[in-house]
What we know:
Elements: E1 3-4, E2 12-13, E3 18-19, E4 24-31, E5 36-37, E6 42-52, E7 57-58, E8 63-65, E9 73-75, E10 80-81, E11 86-88, E12 91-92, E13 97-98, E14 103-104, E15 109-110, E16 115-116, E17 121-122, E18 127-128, E19 132-136, E20 139-144, H1 147-173
Parallel strand pairs: 1-4, 2-4, 3-5, 4-6, 5-7, 6-8, 6-9, 7-10, 8-11, 9-12, 10-13, 11-14, 12-15, 13-16, 14-17, 15-18, 16-19
Antiparallel strand pairs: 19-20
Amino acid sequence: MPILPYGDKTPSIDSEAYVSPQATIVGDVELSKGVSIWPGAVIRGDMASVRIGEYSCVQDSVVIHAHSEDNPAIIGNYSIVSTASVLHGVYIGDSSVIGEGCVIFDGATLGEGVMIAPGSIIPANIVIPPRSLNSGVPASQIREISKDEVEKQRMKAETISDVFKKLKQWQRTI
């Protein structure tokens, strides 16, 4: 797996995180405990930092990048970034789910427990309130999300982390 320094910054990957051998991690990137990074994901901390919180997962072919130090990419704990999404300099709160193929631009802030429907686009500098379902191009709020739904999102992230923890153990025996 390409884990590459950029300038004087080297990725920091917790020993309990899983990074697919087909993922690319560059520069000022921090992956916390229980994080899973899936095949084809590219996480670039070359222009600014990228921080991914505990038990979050970044699925296949996701690109995360931050264009400026004013807008680092920060993903909270227990969040899921689904396949083929692109995130530039965003803040995503804990227990959030970004659906497949979403694009989120610089300076967007998503509160805790947010769900973004697949294929949605979040323009730059937009603030999405906590516990809301958003959809569309550009995305708009569809409804509020209950505390029970947020807890289910968190449990799903934990389940995914457990799967990749086992995969990491199996890879050591092959």
